[in-house]
Amino acid sequence: MGKPTLEELPTELKILILSQVPDSDTLKSLVLASPGYHNAYLAVRQELLRCLVKKQYTGFLDLAEALTAVRSKGVHFSYRREEAITLLDKWRRRNEIRERGQSLLNQYLPNDLEEPESLEESVKLLHFHNMLCFFLKDYSIHAPRPPWIQHDQWEKDCLPLHLSASEKHRFLRAMCRFQILKNIFGDEVWCFGPIRCDTCRAIPTDLPPTEWRNVSCCDSCFHSKVWQFEKFDDMADGGQYVNMEHLAYRLFYGTMPPWEYEEMGGILYYFDGRIKDISKEIKKALRELIKSTPCEYFWDIIPKEQRPPGAAIEIENDFVSFDENHSLGLAGLGPEFIHGVLHLDRLSRRNVLCANARACYQSFIGLDLGLSWDYRFPFIDPADQFETLNFEHFWSTLSPLEQPTVGWKKAWILPHSKEDIFEDALNYDRKSEQDWDWGYAWWDERRLKEWKAPLLLENTEISEASGSAQVS
Fold it and tell me: By 3-state DSSP, what share of the chain in percent is helix, strand and coil, each rounded to 5?
């Protein structure tokens, strides 16, 4: 009698095999290829996916960060304020909550930031993981070139990049937090074409965008931007109008040390570069369209299947400077938006970007935010732990990923003594967005030396003055 094939194995062994699958793509291939394994999968689907989530995020990214990114979708501060505050408070206190996971009686206390709550959430986390993996690979190929490195040298000697474990972790942490930022405080994505939401699918495809308001449409497509300066009586003295960016700082930015939102700035400029690449395609295609157009306004006389959204681009001047006017704003729409755009065909990609181009974009930290350093101090728990005497010694007691990189310290920390607090040692003359274009805040010291980064020459007296060791 011959040995049984994989298909002939009992259900219990099939389940055991499924539990050993390393990633969601392999699991999907196996389940779809075999009716027997599909039935075994259905029998233990929720537990199997929950374990797969933990397997894929262990050593990859703090699951609490990913869970917050997934759960914050649709929880915009402008219309779900209490939920947003609760969600951000749990995210801010994630380490504290973990430490309380063991009671005085050494009994485990449930922590909803440690694992998905449902089958649906497990699926979302696996999709989110796949997106992060895509960006890691894409960044290694399309990483922005540091300005002092020549283009040919960058293409020939540096790309593709091979990020170290710490660089990957900082990149993924920043990517995840960028998604949280966008979900809760960022601009809405206006649906269009193949990636429209379920509600919007009822809109006739040949209906001009200017007429969309006359049909049923979801809030994510047309939500008012009055939230940027909305009135919150319980958050402002005397019922005064409060700048939303200030609230975002209190609830989000101010709870992390400054080098961690500088890492997010690197993500913004990486996305900006990808949008500019696509913008070049858009400008070239639209120029071809107007060559055969006998008037300046061409939207109504070109074939319907080739029309860009009329509200965004109507004359040649609208797209000549499309990348300069819109690339950073579109980049601020977040990882999920950029990921979706990069997976569209050329025409749909053009239409989605044009539909989401707008006259005014929500500010990102450091870009027209207008927050003085006086407002940023004191930091908010848990970031307030960094405001201490002999702060570099305190940094040395933390894990490497909790510390700033050498690049950030060279950029921001002035010569100081052990008696100086963190606030007194910062270089306030430096612009917040400086060096974001090459992601300076997440690179290891080894890589900065390899690239001969001019940043390493800044504030060379730091180590002598502080008497502390360099930490990468």
Answer: 60, 0, 40
- Note whether 384 and 259 are within 8 A (CB): no
Tens of pLDDT, residue by residue over 191-205, are: 644 444 544 444 444
- 189 to 183, 196, 213: CA distances (angstroms): 10, 10, 16
How many Cα neighbours within 13 Å face the side chain of 116? 25
Contact 7, 34 (CB under 8 A): yes
CB 405 within 8 A of CB 173: no
Maximum Cα–Cα distance for the chain, whole Å? Answer: 85
Q: How far apart are CA 343 and CA 337, in angstroms?
A: 10
Q: Which of 35, 223, 154 is nearest to 451 (CA)?
A: 154
Helix 63-71 vs helix 119-142: angle between axes, to the nearest 10 degrees? 110
Q: What is the pTM of this model?
A: 0.85
CA distance 262 to 265: 5
Q: What is the reported pLDDT for 415? A: 93
Q: What is the DSSP string of 273-304?
A: HHHHHHHHHHHHHHHHHHHT-SSS--TTTS-G
Burial of 317 per CB tally in 10 Å (0-12, 13-18, 19+):
exposed
d(CA 426, CA 338): 34
Task: Please list the ranges in the chain whose pLDDT falls under 70.
Answer: 1-4, 101-111, 191-242, 289-290, 292-302, 309-320, 363-370, 458-472
